[in-house]
Every structure is written in C-alpha cells, then in structure tokens.
Amino acid sequence: MSLDAKTVTRIARLARIGLQPEEVETLGKDMGSIIDWVEQLKEVDVTGVDPMIGTGLAKPRLREDRVTDGNCRDKVLSNAPEREGPFYTVPKVVE
Amino acid sequence: MSGIHDFTLASARDALKARKISAVELTNAHIDAIERLDGQLNSFITRTPDQAREAAKASDEALAKGEGGSLCGIPLGIKDLFCTNGVRTTAASKILGNFVPPYESTVTANLLKDGAVFLGKLNLDEFAMGSANLTSAFGPVENPWKRKDSDAKLVPGGSSGGSAAAVAAGLVLGATGTDTGGSIRQPAAFTGIAGIKPTYGRCSRFGTIAFASSLDQAGPMARNLQDCAILLESMAGFDPRDSTSVDTPVPHYEAALKRGVKGLRVGIPKEYHVEGMPAEIEALWQQGMTWLRDAGAEIVEVSLPHTKYGLPTYYIAALAEASSNLARYDGVRFGERVSAPTLDGLYEASRAAGFGDEVKRRILIGTHVLSSGYYDAYYLRAQKVRTLIQQDFLKAFESVDVLLTPTAPSGAFAQDEKPSDPVQMYLNDVFTVPASMAGVPALSVPAGLDARGVPLGLQLIGKFFDEETLIAAGHAIEQAAAFHHRPTIHAGVSA
C-alpha cells in the first residue's frame, strides 16, 4: 500500500530532506511497497528474545582520560562550505 | 613469464622482491591500462597517477635496499568510501563531491604502511547503497564481462562495483571493498574475482564513511584468495579508534591456503534452496559440494530457519542506522551547501540537492521505522529477529566448520534490466545478507560461467574470526574450479 502524501511529507520533514511534489508520489509508492514487504517480520515469535545491538564481539574498554588529538582547527574547518574566520556560518537562528 | 598484465598480486610481489620488475614499471603499466580502458568502464572516480608514480619510486628505493613491507610497490585501488588524506573522497555522492579528508582511514593507513601504491579512488553505489553500481552520482560502472551473444552493458554488482570491475579488468592488482549486506561478495561474483567480508570487528571502521555501523566491514577484493589473504593481513588489526574493533591477533592468512579441507565439515543450509532459483545456480552449488567432498570434506545438511527474514530485517536495521549516520550531511561543516533563509531550509535544500533518489528513499524509510509510534513495531522487532538470525548461525556452527551457498541468485544483469521495484533489486542480496546480520565472516570465489558466459560465484560462511578455514575451503574450490576465464575488457587484451 502506498504511503499517503501527508505521511511522506511528515517523514521528509523529520529527515530534513526537501521534496518536490512529484517526488512525494513516487516515494510514497516505493516506500509503501518496502514497508509492506517488511511486514512479514510480524509472523516471527520474538517473545523473550533480546534485541541484538551490534555483534557483541568487542569488549567495552576504558582509555586513559587524556587528550590524544587536537590543535587542528584549520584542518577541521578546511571543508566548510562557508565560514568566517574560525567559525562555520549558518543563517540567523536567534532574533 | 608472459605479459605484465598476467601478474596476480602474489606473483607481482615475488617478481618485485626478486627485482625482475620495478615498481615504477608495474605502476606505469597499470596507469596506462586505466587510461586505455576506464573511459568505458568508469571504475575510478578520482585517479592519482602522480602520487602513484612517487610512491612506486619510493618502493623501488626500499626494494633495492632489501626493505619494504608485504605490499611494497603493489598498485591498488581504494573504494571511494575510505578517507584518504588530501585526496578527494566522495562516497559517490554529490553531497561529498568536493570533500577532501584531512586524515587517513585506518585500513588505508595500514596498506600504505606496508608499501602499497594507490592508483586512485574507485566508484561505488552512492554511500554504498545499491547492488548494481547504478546509484553513483559519478555515473554507473560497466562490468568488463560481456554475454556471449550480446554487447549489452552489464552491471558489475554493488556496492563495491568499481573495485570489482577494476580488479577484473586488470586495472589494479587488488582493491579495498566494504560489505554491509553483500557489497564485496556480490560484485566479486558478478565479475569473476574473489572477495572476503571478514568478521565484524576484524578491520577498523575508522575513517570509512558509515552506511550501517553495526554491519559495515572492510575487506579485500582481488583475482584470487591468495591475493585477498595478503591484503587482508595488511588491512586487519585492532584499532583503539573504533570501539567495535576486536583486539585479537591477525594470523598469517596466506599460510591457510595450504591447509586443505580433509575432514572439514561443510554445512549446506537447506533454506537457501529458494523458490525460483535458476537451475544453473543450483547446479553450480551441487558442483561446489562435489568439489569439496572430492577434496576430503564432509557435506552435511543444516538448517538456518530464519533465513527468509534476513532481508526484511536487514532493510529495517541498516536503513535505520543509515538515516542516523547520514544526518551529519547538513551543509554546515562540510559538503555541498544550498543556501536558504532559515537553518532548517538550508538543511532541507542541501540534502535535497546533495542526495540521490536511492539514498533519499533509504533515509526516509530509516526515519520512518525509528519514528515515534513505529519504533517498537519495526526497529525493535527487527533487532530481535536479528538475534534469532545470529543464533541460527551459532547453532549451525556447533556441528559444521563452514557453510557453502551460492553468492547471488543470478549472474550479472544488464544495466537496462534493472528491476523498477526496489524490493526486487534488494533480492540480489538474499544469500549474502544473513551472514552480515550475524557478523560472521564470508567470502565469494569464482566457480564457473553461466550459459551466457557470465561468471558465477560460490559463497563460504565461517565462524567468528575463522577467516583461515574460509580461505582454506575457498582455495579448494579455486583449485577444483580452475577458473581462468578473462573478461572481454581486460588490460592484457590489445585493442
């Protein structure tokens, strides 16, 4: 079943992806068919099953609390699409 | 010795050490092949010939002194998902079209430390999302193989399609790939080469652009498993900068080639006999069983009861993680920016312009399954089914050492035969996804040609950190299959 335009628009808003009106319809259809297909997971009995979060192969580890990296401001800023001095710039967010 | 394009990685290494060939000669021959053939194949996004020549010169100096690491002077290609210091890294996306990382990924740093020569950055599906290398913002990659009876452009598989095509055509001696649900194994099968997806945690993810962090794993792609073993030994290892990296010694994988399979128990998962599987894939699988049995292995039927849920589970888990990982592309700190009067407007416009259709679709589905009211029904349930899928494998490995399956349900298809329904496209990964979900290692080796002359692969799946047994069993298949076919488009074929 296709997802309706309102649902697609709401999801796109959450994901901060601007959509053209014609994209809303195509995406609604494609997403609907994928959602219908994953519905089959409802058949599986998952009572008492723990969710798998990663493979659990790596042991959590502590590290010494000290600076291991840094002092590379210019490198960090080197790919900024727009900047002023040592700052990233964005449209005004506070009046 | 025949031509320079007949070298495998291992034989080139030996010839370099014996000073029968120089690293500069070897590198120049590959740069020349790229110039001749890659206009058609489009396997490279960024070529770095000058840097490669410099590195080759340094390799020759090291080799002359009897020094140099295990890959000294070996020309490789790097999937454009690995950050390379000072060399543009795009993930085949417009949104990273001008991104130049100021640091090196751990995997590529390991290869450089061992003396590898990088010829450039290889094409892929955008953010590694695809199974045919048709979603790249830098255009599709063409498979160097052709069907016997037609000139149609075939896909190289995906997402590591550029890596696969470049290796198969002889443009590089080996390449890095990444595999989230089959992105090394399926393109390896489609192009008649070998590829290994190691155990999750074997290769560091530091500096590899993330798609689905709990699944992404780097691995080698090369003409055969000996070459893959040499590459994997260099790429693998503990890295404190990746919290999921596992601190366990890296074995000398190349030595595993000689182990043989006598007494090895090979499981055949009965659920992999899927409905509608082409007869020639089924026949190849039977042939693989015969080869391993003849080499001394025992074939045992096993059951992985949750196999059919692998793909839908994957598409929830992987897309949820992708929607979170790709939130960083916001047009503020790096990447393409499209200006707008408000901050949200800037995000929406930048992401609308920067991402392709498949990536948008996947982010939106991932966002949907994580959103309020749907999280438990989709995401949490998928994580629980994932536990069951992993348990299937762990249980099977109580009675067998490796599993044998086909790598993909078909050979390479033509670019214009791409299914329009996204679910049909996802079915390409039906045999590769479950091992990714479980985190266990798996590989693909070329095993034969289909009726139309296009290569087919067999997959072996192993126990956690037992890549050596996989390599041993895979090598037994290589020896029996004696796959020495070459694609139509190859560096060694003069035009």
From TrEMBL, chain A:
Source taxon at top rank: Bacteria
Catalysis performed (reactions): L-glutamyl-tRNA(Gln) + L-glutamine + ATP + H2O = L-glutaminyl-tRNA(Gln) + L-glutamate + ADP + phosphate + H(+); L-aspartyl-tRNA(Asn) + L-glutamine + ATP + H2O = L-asparaginyl-tRNA(Asn) + L-glutamate + ADP + phosphate + 2 H(+)
GO MF, one annotated term: transferase activity
Keyword Kinase: no
Top-level EC class as recorded in UniProt: ligase
GO BP, one annotated term: glutaminyl-tRNAGln biosynthesis via transamidation
EC annotation from Swiss-Prot or TrEMBL: 6.3.5.-
Family matches, as SUPFAM superfamilies: Glu-tRNAGln amidotransferase C subunit
Keyword Transcription tagged: no
Keywords for the protein's UniProt record, in alphabetical order: ATP-binding, Ligase, Nucleotide-binding, Protein biosynthesis, Transferase
One matching Pfam family: GatC
HAMAP family xref list: GatC
Record's function text: Allows the formation of correctly charged Asn-tRNA(Asn) or Gln-tRNA(Gln) through the transamidation of misacylated Asp-tRNA(Asn) or Glu-tRNA(Gln) in organisms which lack either or both of asparaginyl-tRNA or glutaminyl-tRNA synthetases. The reaction takes place in the presence of glutamine and ATP through an activated phospho-Asp-tRNA(Asn) or phospho-Glu-tRNA(Gln).
Assembly: Heterotrimer of A, B and C subunits.
Record NCBIfam families: gatC (TIGR00135)
PANTHER family: GLUTAMYL-TRNA(GLN) AMIDOTRANSFERASE SUBUNIT C, MITOCHONDRIAL
Family the entry assigns: Belongs to the GatC family.
Name used for this protein in its record: Aspartyl/glutamyl-tRNA(Asn/Gln) amidotransferase subunit C
Source organism: Gluconobacter potus
Phylogenetic lineage: Bacteria, Pseudomonadati, Pseudomonadota, Alphaproteobacteria, Acetobacterales
Gene: gatC
TrEMBL record, chain B:
GO molecular function, one term: glutaminyl-tRNA synthase (glutamine-hydrolyzing) activity
Active site positions: 79, 159, 183
Origin superkingdom: Bacteria
Key words of the record: ATP-binding, Ligase, Nucleotide-binding, Protein biosynthesis
Catalysis performed (reactions): L-glutamyl-tRNA(Gln) + L-glutamine + ATP + H2O = L-glutaminyl-tRNA(Gln) + L-glutamate + ADP + phosphate + H(+)
Record EC number: 6.3.5.7
Keyword field contains Ligase: yes
Key word ATP-binding present: yes
UniProt-listed Pfam families: Amidase
Amidase domain span: 25-470
EC category: ligase
UniProt record similarity statement: Belongs to the amidase family. GatA subfamily.
Role summary: Allows the formation of correctly charged Gln-tRNA(Gln) through the transamidation of misacylated Glu-tRNA(Gln) in organisms which lack glutaminyl-tRNA synthetase. The reaction takes place in the presence of glutamine and ATP through an activated gamma-phospho-Glu-tRNA(Gln).
PANTHER family xref list: GLUTAMYL-TRNA(GLN) AMIDOTRANSFERASE SUBUNIT A (PTHR11895:SF151), TRANSAMIDASE (PTHR11895)
Quaternary structure annotation from Swiss-Prot or TrEMBL: Heterotrimer of A, B and C subunits.
Cited HAMAP family: GatA
Protein known as: Glutamyl-tRNA(Gln) amidotransferase subunit A
Lineage: Bacteria, Pseudomonadati, Pseudomonadota, Alphaproteobacteria, Acetobacterales
Designated gene of the protein: gatA
